[in-house]
Design brief:
3 domains, nine-stranded mixed beta sheet, five-stranded antiparallel beta sheet, transmembrane, Helix Hairpins, Heat Shock Protein 90, alpha+beta, Beta-Lactamase, 22% strand, EC 2.7.13.3, transferase, elongated
Amino acid sequence: MKLKENYSQTYFWKHFLWRLALIICLFIGVFLIGIRQIVIQQKIELKANQKQVVLADKNLIEHLFKESILDLLTISESDLFLQFFSGKIADESIEKSFKSFLLKLLENKEAYYQLRFLDTSGMEIFRLERRDDEPYFCPRNELQDKSHRYYFQDAIGLQRGQFYVSPFDLNIEHGELELPYRPMLRICAPVFNDEEEKQGINVLNFDGTTIVQELDEQLQEYGGANYLINQEGYFLNAKDTAMEWGFMFENKKDQNISSFFSEDFQTINQMQQGQFESDRGLFTVSVIEPFSRLNHGGINYELVESYEWKLIAFVPAQELTYGAFLPMEKLLVLFFFILALGGSLVFFYSKIAWRKLRAQLALVQSEEKLRIANETKDRFFSIVAHDLKNSSGTIANYLEFIFENYDDIPENERTVHLRDITFAASQHNKLLYEILDWARLQQDDLSFNPQTVLLKELLEEQLQQIDLQLKNKELVVEFDFDDDFRVFADRDMIKTIFRNLVNNAIKFSYRKSRIVIEGKPKAEQVELRVIDFGIGMREIDAQKIFDLSSKVQQPGTEKEAGTGFGLKLVAELVAKNGGTIQVESELGKGSSFIFNLPSGK
C-alpha cells in the first residue's frame, strides 16, 4: 500500500513538473513574440502618424499663404480699388459696398491683421486693421509714414507680376516689439493704373499666431515636439518658447537648429523631405515653400526672393523604447498572473490525472463540480480573477519571502512586511465581502427592507468609520443638502453605496482637496451626487465603469490600489432600490457620481 502511495505521488509530481515547464516555455515565447510585434506595429504607426502630421501642417501653411497672396493680388488688380483710392467713385453706394467688402475680408480671415495701401512715398493712404478682434478703418490722423521700414524699401521696386514677402518676425509698433509677441509676415504687391504707372503697394500683414497655434495643438495631441525654422536655421516655433525668434534678440543669436541638434544638423539641413532616426530620437522633416510661382488672372506671379521654411517633428529617443510603447508594470503583473494561472491549471490537471488512478468516482464528482462552476464563471471570473490577483499575490509573495529569509530579516523590516501583509489581507477581505454581497444579491438572498432614511445622520455615521482615511489625505467632506433631507431605501444598502462612493472619491482625490455630497429633490425621487476634484477619467472608461464584464481600474492619486468591484456592486444596489446611476468625469478635473433614489418625504 505504501509502495503504491509513493508511486502515485511520484507519478503526480513527474507529470506536474514537465507540464509546468512546457507551459512556462511556451508562454514566455508567445509573450515575448507578442510584445515585439506590438512594439514594431506601434512604432510603424508612430512613424506614419508623424509623416501625416508634418504633411498636414505643410499643406495647411502653404494653403493659408497661397490664399492670402491671391486675396491681395485680387485687391491690387481691382479697378474698383484704384477708383476708390483715386476718388473716382461718385456713387456712395458703390463706395459703401467696397468698404463693406474689405471689412468682410478681415472679418472672415482671422489671420489678416492689417491691410494697407502705401503710396510711392511710403505714406499710408488707408489702413484697415483689427482692434479688439474687430475690423477697423483708421482715420487719416492715425495714418503713418512707412518709408523707413525695410519691407517698403524692398517692395517699392516691384514690377507687375511680382510680389514680395517679408521675413517672418515679431510685430513692431511705434519702434517697440508688440507685447504679447505677435508673429507677423508682410505680403506686398504693387498697384498700377491703366497707364502702367505705379501708384504704390498694397501690404497685407499676416498674423502667424494661427500657424503657431496649429503646431502647438498638434504637439498636445500627438506628443513629441514640432519645430518650424527659417532659412537661417532660427526657430519660429518650438516646444520651449524661450528658443523662438533668436534672430531678433542679441542674447539669443546662438539659439538655432545647428546648436540645438548639433549631431543631426547636417542630416536635417540636407533633407528636403523624409524621416530618419538617430541617437537623439525620430526626426520627420519637410521643406515648406509657402510662396511659389502663382497664376492669377492669366498672369504668372513670382516671388522676388527665394523663401522656404523647414518643419521638423521630433520624438525623443526615450519615447521610442519598449517602455514608452507598453505599460510594462501592468504587463509584468499580467505575465506573472497568467503564469501562476497556467501553473495552477497544470497543477489541477495533474492532480485530476493522479486522482484518476485512485478512483473513477472522484473524477466524475470533480467533473460535475467543474461543470456547475463553469455555468457561472463566464460572467463572474473576468472580474474576480483580475481583482483577487493583486491582494492574494502580495500576501503569498510576502509570506514566502519572510518564510525563506526569516532569520536574515531585521525585526523592524519584519514589522513593515507584516504591516503590508495586513493591509493586503484587509483589501482582500474587503473584496471578498463585496463579492459575497453581490452573490447574495444575484440569488435574492440579501434582505431588502426599504424605509425612510435621514441622509445626514447616516452619512455622519459612515464618515466616522473612514475618518482616518480622510485625515491621512487631509480631505474635507462637504454636505450640500437640507438637514431633513430623506430618501426611501434599504438603510444597509445605502450605507454600502455611500461607503464605496466616498472611498472611491478618497482614492482619486488630491491631498488637501475636498469631497462634496449633494442632494436635491426631483419629483418623486431625489438626485444624489458624490463629487471629487481629483484625476478624473476618460469618457470611454466612464461609459464602462459599472459594466460587470469591464476591467476599468487605475491607481489612486497616491498609488492606492483598489479592487475595482465596489462600483459594480454600487450600481446593482442602486438598481435594487429602484434607482439609476451614472458618472460625469473629465481628466484632470474630477468625477461626479450621480444616482436617483425614491424620495423619503
